[in-house]
């Protein structure tokens, strides 16, 4: 699909919704507000909007059919029992994108591609205005699964199919968004394109991101190569949304352990990514005694172990996923080591403290007092700061009411905080947002064996569709 086939951006001229006028608090989050409809939504009355339910078989067929682009490691004997390796802006990602554009256009949507390759498929409503959107991502980890991100987009497509079949006309437009490079696996800023949309990542920074592991291509060159460098600015002002709902697998074990079907996601924990660079001195392994070494690798090992211990002390998490060293020779002590560090906690304050302690400890571990040889120098580069997020109370209530109407049983759902970052983090800065989780087997994700039952995917898709329809209805009553 070439960008020229996308229709021009709709110009939303109507007055901004009241939701857009909600005040933001000091953390940049939407302030809590008492909503007249909240009590009604939470009252426990079983009702679905329009009695619509998704077609489970079609949803799963679509999902597995599109997973032929970028199929990864096999773990079972069935055709569908493979992982995924669909890196952002790769040839396989282009094919999945082309399918998404062609399918949604055939369903009557206008499609807009912005300068980050974010794809917005918008189905018109009775009134003009920003769309109520569902969104997620079609890219995967290099060794990822079939559900992370993909389920959220495909559930949106199934919603469009149901609305068309039922000849439903929503009050306002509804849309489905595919966000580019959510994973940050190929171009090393996660959620980078929703970040540009939110005005939090400069487009030049995003376009200039180089492929990890020494690649030479950039996001911009790959967007251009696969025909997804749109001309519309990636911006919440060019492409406003009335709300953003995201269906996602939990990627953790809580729902499964509690035999529950739906997680009502109230927010996202904070995380920060760093690149830590150590400089020691290349030296001969046989002729250099320990007290004459500046062994960057040994220092890195101590730092990584230390990050684990300090994070545990604060009930936080710390992980290293990328490590490179040079020169990479059996009989040379490495003089240069670079590693990634990912730290996470439920509050920003905890991460502040952890970062400060890590910096102090790494300096100590690099000093000759600890190396018992020469000093190793340490530099930190902050790659991503993602503050803790509180989702919008109105969207959370909408999801709760939808979970109740779909499952009919309050014991089948729970409120949770997401441990992973998602595009909804950035959309929440500019429009009411919340997420819906469904269980995945053993809580495993970012792994080829990632698996969610078809019926759980369909339940999640039903809650997603009901949430969109409920929100659309509330908009018509000017309650959001
Ligand atoms: Zn995801």
Secondary structure: elements and pairs:
Layout: H1 36-41, H2 56-66, E1 71-74, E2 82-84, H3 91-106, E3 110-113, E4 119-123, E5 132-136, H4 150-165, E6 174-178, H5 192-197, H6 203-207, H7 219-225, E7 243-249, H8 254-257, E8 262-268, E9 270-279, E10 283-284, H9 296-313, E11 317-319, E12 323-326, E13 332-333, E14 336-345, H10 348-366, H11 368-371, E15 377-386, E16 389-390, H12 393-407, E17 413-418, H13 423-427, E18 433-438, H14 454-476
Helix pairs in contact: 2-4, 2-14, 4-14, 9-10, 12-14
Residues 137, 148-149, 182, 248, 422 line the site of zinc ion.
Overall tally of domains:
2
Annotation, overall tally of beta strands: 18
Number of helices: 14
The general outline is: elongated
Class from secondary-structure proportions: alpha+beta
Percent helix, as a range, is 25-40%
Short description:
It comes from Lasiosphaeria miniovina. This is Peptidase M20 dimerisation domain-containing protein. This protein has 480 residues and is an alpha+beta fold.
Please explain how this structure is put together.
- The structure is a single chain.
- The protein is elongated, with a radius of gyration of 23 Å.
- Strands 3, 4, 5, 6, 7, 8, 16, 17 and 18 form a nine-stranded mixed beta sheet that branches. Strands 9, 11, 12, 14 and 15 form a five-stranded antiparallel beta sheet that branches. A two-stranded antiparallel ribbon has the order 1-2.
- The chain is α+β, with helices and mostly antiparallel strands and 480 residues long.
- The longest helix is centred in the C-terminal third of the chain and has 23 residues, at 454-476.
- Mean pLDDT is 90; it is low at 1-46.
- It has two domains: 24-269 and 388-476, Aminopeptidase; 271-386, Alpha-Beta Plaits (2-Layer Sandwich).
- It has helices at residues 36-41, 56-66, 91-106, 150-165, 192-197, 203-207, 219-225, 254-257, 296-313, 348-366, 368-371, 393-407, 423-427, 454-476, and strands spanning 71-74, 82-84, 110-113, 119-123, 132-136, 174-178, 243-249, 262-268, 270-279, 283-284, 317-319, 323-326, 332-333, 336-345, 377-386, 389-390, 413-418, 433-438.
- Residues 137, 148-149, 182, 248, 422 line the site of zinc ion.
- Residues 271-368 form the Peptidase M20 dimerisation domain.
- This is Peptidase M20 dimerisation domain-containing protein.
- Keywords: Hydrolase.
């Amino acid at each position: 699909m070439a960008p020229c086939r996308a229709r021009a951006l709709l110009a939303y001229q109507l007055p901004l919704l009241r939701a857009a006028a909600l005040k933001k608090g000091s953390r940049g989050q939407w302030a809590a507000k008492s909503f007249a409809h909240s009590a009604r939504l939470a009252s426990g009355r079983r009702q679905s909007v329009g009695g619509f339910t998704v077609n489970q078989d079609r949803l799963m067929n679509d999902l597995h059919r599109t997973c032929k682009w970028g199929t990864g490691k096999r773990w079972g004997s069935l055709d569908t029992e493979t992982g995924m390796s669909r890196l952002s802006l790769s040839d396989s990602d282009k094919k999945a994108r082309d399918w998404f554009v062609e399918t949604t256009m055939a369903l009557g949507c206008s499609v807009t591609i912005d300068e980050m390759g974010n794809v917005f498929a918008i189905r018109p409503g009775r009134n003009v205005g920003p769309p109520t959107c569902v969104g997620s991502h079609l890219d995967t980890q290099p060794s990822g699964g079939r559900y992370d991100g993909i389920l959220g987009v495909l559930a949106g497509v199934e919603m469009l199919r149901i609305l068309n079949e039922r000849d439903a006309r929503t009050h306002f437009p509804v849309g489905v968004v595919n966000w580019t490079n959510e994973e940050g696996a190929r171009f090393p800023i996660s959620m980078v394109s929703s970040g540009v949309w939110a005005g939090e990542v400069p487009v030049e920074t995003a376009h200039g991101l180089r492929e990890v592991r020494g690649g030479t291509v950039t996001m911009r060159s790959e967007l251009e190569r696969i025909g997804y460098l749109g001309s519309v600015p990636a911006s919440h002002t060019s492409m406003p949304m009335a709300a953003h709902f995201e269906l996602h697998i939990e990627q953790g074990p809580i729902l499964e352990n509690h035999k529950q079907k739906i997680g009502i996601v109230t927010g996202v924990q904070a995380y920060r990514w760093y690149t830590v660079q150590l400089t020691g001195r290349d030296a001969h392994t046989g002729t250099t005694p320990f007290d004459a070494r500046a062994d960057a690798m040994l220092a890195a090992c101590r730092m990584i172990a230390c990050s684990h211990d300090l994070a545990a002390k604060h009930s936080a998490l710390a992980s290293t996923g990328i490590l490179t060293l040079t020169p990479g020779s059996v009989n040379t002590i490495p003089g240069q080591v670079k590693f990634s560090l990912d730290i996470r906690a439920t509050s920003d304050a905890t991460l502040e403290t952890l970062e400060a302690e890590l910096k102090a400890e790494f300096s100590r571990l690099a000093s000759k007092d600890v190396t018992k040889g020469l000093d190793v120098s340490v530099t930190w580069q902050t790659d991503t700061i993602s503050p803790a997020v509180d989702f919008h109370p109105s969207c959370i209530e909408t999801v709760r009411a939808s979970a109740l109407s779909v499952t009919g049983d309050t014991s089948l759902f729970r409120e949770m905080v997401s441990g992973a970052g998602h595009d909804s983090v950035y959309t929440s800065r500019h429009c009411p947002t919340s997420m819906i989780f469904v269980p995945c087997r053993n809580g495993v994700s970012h792994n080829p064996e990632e698996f969610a039952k078809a019926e759980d995917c369909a339940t999640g898709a039903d809650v997603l569709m009901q949430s969109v329809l409920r929100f659309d209805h509330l908009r018509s009553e000017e309650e959001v």
